[in-house]
# Entry
Amino acid sequence: MAVTPLTISSVNRSTGLLQALAAANTDGSTIVNDGKVFLIVANADGSPTNVTVAWGVNGAVDGVTPTARVIAVANATTRIIGPFPPSSYNDATGLVTFTFSKVTSLTVQAVKLDPAI
# Structure
């Protein structure tokens, strides 16, 4: 398998958002990132998992190359992660990449606030 691009769902005050989480991909996922996107991660498994958010293409900050951000998602919990500043997290094509330490009973959804509606 390959890294899977996630479709971004919009949430707004007129209709809200019906959560539609999908199984996490073993090889990870990407989202198009404008700095207003969040990732919902639901871990229904009996053990925790880690979500790793890759650092972007901008290299060093103050002479130090940052490591990827790792967010723990405890077992039987849902965590919302983000937003992701594009200057820090976007790759050369405007994507943010996520990988998962395990995908058993793990579902994800990318969400963006649409304040215009």
Remarks:
- The longest strand covers residues 106-113.
- The chain has one helix and ten strands.
- The helical segments are 86-89.
- The longest helix spans residues 86-89.
